[in-house]
Amino acid sequence: MSFHMPDCAEIVRHALAEDIGTGDVTTDLTVDPGMRAEAHFVAKQAGIIAGTEAVRQTLMQLDPGIELQIHLEDGETAEVGEKILTARGSARALLTGERVSLNFLQQLSGIATLTSRFVALAVGTKARIVETRKTTPGLRLLEKYAVRVGGGRNHRFGLYDGIVIKDNHILACGGITTAVERALSQASHTLSITVECDTLEQVREALEAGADILLLDNMSTEELTEAVEMVEGQAMTEASGGVSEDTVAEIARTGVDIISVGALTHSAPALDISMELVV
After folding, report:
1. Tens digit of pLDDT for each residue in 162-175?
2. Which of 3, 66, 102, 235 could pair with 59 as two cysteines, CB 3.0-4.6 Å apart?
3. Helix or strand holding residue 93 (H, E)
4. What is 9-116+268-278's CATH superfamily?
């Protein structure tokens, strides 16, 4: 399966400006400006690759003449010691872009790898594994892309593309029914309405108010099972809170439609990848 990475040119531009500033003093002072070299990006740990386009964009912005050979496409599994991609061009550009390239490739591959583990644990159920908005500021599009590469699905991208009425919204407007009624009376029919529910009584109220999705927050598996039975397919059910690799399979077996996992983006360990220069 091929994946199309979102346009990351501007994100890369900011990352390079942050890292290089007024110049890479170490490389500029020690490396011949005319030297050419080859760099191999090598997996030091097995995992799902994501972010090769960000590497290409990083190196191309530093040297438009860089030649890039992709050995493993996004979504493919790298084994320990396997080459992910090879870059040929200015030695200065390769060295200056090393850290930013690896930051993108390691972080996005780490997210894809962790997501794939959660997805595997939910196999055999109808539950979709999705991330949350707990993403690195400025990198949301790329991190959500990495979740898709790992076999997960995407939750809403921002506050603009889905109505999610959470506990503080409920408190601010006086109750679930009032909150849902206000949303239904003014929102576009294309926007789904999700209501966070901490109790089974709130599940009943949100369902009767007309919510499309019930976000079952920090419920036990027994409560999740009861909530799914109560809903009877009248709305989608989403389990959230307390989801880990140790609990996701049991949660999935309750019959919920969606399992949202903040850890996919905020706690995924970077995949160990190195850049090895050959001159």
Report:
1. 999 999 999 999 99
2. 66
3. helix 91-96
4. Quinolinate phosphoribosyl transferase, N-terminal domain (3.90.1170.20)
Active-site hit among 99, 117, 204, 253: 99
Catalytic residue (choose from 117, 134, 153, 204): 134
On the 0-12 / 13-18 / 19+ scale of CB atoms within 10 A, 8 is buried
Secondary structure E strands in 64-218: 67-70, 77-78, 83-90, 128-130, 163-165, 193-197, 213-217
Largest CA distance in the chain: 71
Q: 53, 74, 143, 217: which one is catalytic? A: 217
- For the chain, what are the domain ranges? 9-116+268-278, 119-266
Pick the catalytic residue from 44, 83, 153, 166. Answer: 166
Query: 119-266 adopts what CATH topology?
Result: TIM Barrel (3.20.20)
φ, ψ dihedrals at 41, nearest 5°:
-95, 115
99 tagged catalytic = yes
- Active-site pick, 74, 98, 143, 196: 196
In this predicted model, what pLDDT tens digit does every residue of 190-242 receive, in sequence order?
A: 999 999 999 999 999 999 999 999 999 999 999 999 999 999 999 999 999 98
Is there a catalytic annotation at residue 201?
Answer: no
Mind listing the pLDDT tens digit for each residue in 73-86? 999 999 999 999 99
- Is 217 a residue of the active site? yes
| Residue 134 falls in the annotated catalytic set | yes
> Band of the pLDDT at 4, cuts 50, 70, 90?
confident
Going along the chain, which residue ranges are E strands? 36-43, 47-48, 67-70, 77-78, 83-90, 128-130, 163-165, 193-197, 213-217, 236-240, 258-260, 273-278
